[in-house]
Design a protein that fits this description.
single chain, 171 residues, mainly alpha, Arp2/3 complex 21 kDa subunit ARPC3, 7 helices, globular
Length: 171
């Protein structure tokens, strides 16, 4: 059975809640990123291809809903989904702290890469605000969201029965 409809609904609802609720809730100087945490849950459970596709379409939906520069968030989240999926396929599978470690690292990478990409296309972004003032509170809020969101993803996207649990080296 394919998980594509469940992943599509999960990404759509996460993007919708991100735009309508979570961007207006600023706690301790930062905002939680529900779509990123849901993407991490999907990518850890389903791998790099599903993570990259979910990140791309979720980012594209977020760009359309916020009327931001089309494709910037899609590129950043596609890379984040791919990186997280590769981590889940190699060393992170079956580890209890893998979602929390992925949330911390990917939140930092998304902030740095997003800032760099906005800088490259000529948009004004405050480096101090983007990388210093809001990053630590965002990491904390994403960590608070990680446990229930990844648990929900784990419940929604059950493990495959015939799926191998490790990467086999050829040669």
């Amino acid at each position: 059975m394919s998980d594509a409809p469940a992943i599509a609904v999960l990404v759509f609802l996460a993007a919708l809640f991100q735009v309508t609720i979570f961007t207006t809730l600023e706690l301790f100087g930062g905002t939680a990123d529900l779509l990123l945490v849901a993407l991490i849950g999907i990518a850890l459970l389903r791998g790099s291809v599903a993570g990259a596709l979910a990140g791309f379409f979720g980012g594209l939906l977020l760009d359309v809903l916020t009327l931001d520069t089309l494709g910037v968030t899609a590129l950043v989240l596609a890379l984040a989904g791919f990186w997280t999926g590769r981590y889940g396929e190699t060393t992170g599978r079956g580890r209890a702290r893998a979602p929390l470690a992925a949330v911390v690292v990917v939140t930092i990478l998304v902030a740095v890469f997003g800032y760099g990409l906005h800088f490259l296309i000529g948009e004004e972004v405050s480096a101090r605000r983007a990388l210093l003032e809001t990053l630590l509170p965002s990491i904390g809020l994403n960590l608070l969201l990680a446990v229930p969101v990844v648990a929900f993803c784990r419940r929604l996207l059950r493990p495959f029965e015939g799926r191998t649990a490790e990467v086999q080296l050829l040669g």
